[in-house]
Amino acid sequence: MADEGVADRMPTAIRYLQIGLLEEGMTPVLVIPDSERCYELSAGPTSVVAYHPEGWLRFGRDASAVDSILAQLAALKIDTPPLVHCLNVDGIRLAGQLASRTDGQLIANLWSAEEGATMHVRRGDDGPRVILAPSENIAKELRGALPADCKVVVASLGVSQEQPSAKTPRPDQKPALVYSGPLSQHSGLHVALRAVRQVVRTHPWLMFFVIGKGPAESELRAAAESLGIAENVVFTGRVEYLRSVLSDCHVFCIPDWEGGYREELLQALSAGMAIVTVAGGPYDGLVDEDSVLSYPAGDEDALALRLGRLLSEADLCRRLGRSAFALAKRAHTVTKMVDGYAAIYRDLHNRHRTLPIQRADA
Predict the structure, then answer these.
(1) Cα angle at 6 between 224 and 298, to 5 degrees?
(2) How many CB atoms sit inside 10 A of residue 45's CB?
(3) How many angstroms separate the CA atoms of 72 and 51, rounded?
(4) pLDDT band at residue 54, thresholds of 50, 70 and 90?
């Protein structure tokens, strides 16, 4: 089960996952709200079941959405109890009702430790017994926050792996810095814009591409104007195929972890980009001065210093890019993702089908 939150957070990965599961001999069915963005999540011959969410959201436990989904599932003639996989915590209530009505098992993804508290409130009798976390960092925090009978398993996301080209700008090429993610008050983009103002004093041709949508976009545009760097900042809106854009850029920046775990950073790793991140965060394997450069949250001077280093030190840029690509190839391949999810699905399905064997003398 997916929604627009999934379309924003992991669109490429969920498409690869569907195709991979088909190759594993499984039959994925994508259950989504009836919206254009959600339809774009489907891949290959995956069956799509769409529902109208208005009644569900308005009346809480109104079963109209579940009835619609069940009718469409019946037409698909699925002859085994389904495994209901909720990819976004906002849909957990609907997913729980669907699992209950189909005698299926419910599992759910959590993309940040903060979502664990939300899940604890919403669990109830029809809550999931298995939670999938995208990293060990998140899994550790969730294991301390969720009930003991709620198993937490790490299931990494995967992105395509193509050998990246060298990520240092040519003498005739403008250096490009990229942010991709939500445009919100807590995205850290105000800090990034102030850091860019410092950097353009010595690197006046730096272009900062801000990819994404969100409620703070107008405010961020105004901030770029007031800082005198509007000509250096390009707001692109959403980009459907992010990897194709990253292939032509040099430095990727995550100025805050407010968005939780998302696939954009994995795309940047796979593209072999030099990456600057705020310290800490939900991802595994990000080591300062090895796979990334990190800096303290909110410190625009520290961010400007690191950006300046990457724009001035070609060897550092190349070294970080090679390490980033190696991390992506080691931990975030599509094969690793599909194998991990398929193993979890099979384990849950087999446990659900297991029957006790009675003794001969019973």
Answers:
(1) 35
(2) 10
(3) 9
(4) low
Which tokens sit at 213?
Answer: 């949508």
Q: Which residues of 137-157 are buried (b: 16+ CB within 10 A; e: fewer)?
A: bbbebbeebbeeebebebbbb
- Report d(CA 334, CA 64) in Å as an integer: 36
pLDDT value for 142: 92
Residues 6 or more apart in contact with residue 226 via CB below 8 angstroms: none
Q: Is the pLDDT of residue 295 over 90?
A: yes
Let me know: does 37 contact 4? Beta carbons within 8 Å: yes
Cβ-contact 162, 140 below 8 angstroms: no
Predicted structure pTM score? 0.89
Q: Which amino acid is at 339?
A: D
Q: What is the mean pLDDT of residues 295-306?
A: 97
* Contact between residue 268 and residue 178 where contact means Cβ atoms under 8 Å apart: yes
Chain Cα centroid distance, residue 350 = 28
**Residue among 212, 208, 157 at smallest CA distance from 181:** 212
- Other beta carbons within 10 angstroms of residue 289's beta carbon come to 11
